[in-house]
Write a structure and sequence with these properties.
It is globular, with a radius of gyration of 17 Å. Helix content is 14%, strand content 42%. It has one domain (17-195): Sandwich (Jelly Rolls), CATH 2.60.120. With 196 residues, it is mostly beta strands. The protein starts with a helix and ends with a helix. Strand 2 and strand 3 (70-77) form a beta hairpin. The protein contains four helices and 15 strands. It has helices spanning 4-8, 41-50, 166-171, 189-195, and strands at 25-30, 54-61, 70-77, 81-82, 85-86, 93-94, 101-107, 109-116, 122-128, 132-135, 139-145, 151-158, 163-164, 175-180, 183-188. The structure holds D-sorbitol-6-phosphate and zinc ion. D-sorbitol-6-phosphate binds next to strand 3, strand 11 and strand 12.
């Protein structure tokens, strides 16, 4: 039997400005935590010499660890760029590769970069206030803020998903989203590297 009173107290208010959910564990990623994520390493190092701003926060709740349980988090990704590349999250595969995820956009404008593991297909899917994005299993995902205000979203995923950051840290995403003439364009990392 499930004790519903236990779950009733899990109703949470959330704050789309601070990224806080009452009682949730918060992870803060500063620019210095993102070494190796941006394509232009020189622009990264010179930005970091100036300051080490907060790039994103994730507040996560893990109500249960059973097979059917769900975990969820509120992400707040700041606006900005390193060189021409928009601020982004580290990105990951789920350790349990079959695990999918649903992103619900609450505020701001941006996208989720999806990269399928075996076929190597990449796609940028719009994520903004009023959009819902389905991230299938076996797909690396990274949030990117292309707007001028924080990009705020909720991600819901199986409790057993786990996070594999190692594969991305090793080879990064194949595509980068950069600003050209004031607009986001998705380009091959190797092509962008050749122009830096
Ligand atoms: C968790 C979900 C998001 C990310 C968040 C930060 O499965 O995909 O809540 O944790 O967007 O990204 P990252 O790559 O640093 O975990
Ligand atoms: Zn995820």
């Amino acid at each position: 039997m499930i004790d519903l009173s236990q779950y009733a107290i899990l109703a949470r208010g959330y704050d789309t400005t601070t990224g806080e959910i009452k009682g949730a564990a918060v992870v803060r990623r500063w620019l210095s935590d993102l070494r190796g994520s941006f394509v232009d390493t020189q622009a990264f190092e010179s930005a970091l010499r100036q300051s080490d701003p907060l790039i994103y926060t994730v507040s996560s709740l893990e109500p249960g660890k059973g097979q059917g349980d769900l975990h969820y988090g509120l992400g707040v990704l700041m606006p900005g760029k390193i060189g021409a590349e928009y601020y982004l999250t580290k990105g990951h595969f789920h350790a349990w590769r079959e695990a999918a995820e649903v992103y619900i956009g609450l505020r701001g404008t941006g996208g989720i970069l999806l990269e399928e593991q075996s076929a190597g297909e990449s796609q940028i899917v719009p994520l903004a206030a009023g959009t819902i994005v389905y991230v299938p299993g076996h797909t690396a995902h990274r949030s990117i803020n292309t707007g001028h205000e924080p990009l705020v979203y909720i991600g819901v995923y199986p409790a057993s998903a786990g996070h594999d950051y190692g594969s991305i840290a090793k080879q990064n995403f194949r595509k980068v989203l950069i600003e050209r003439d004031g607009h986001p364009v998705l380009l091959d990392r190797t092509d962008v590297l050749a122009t830096i």
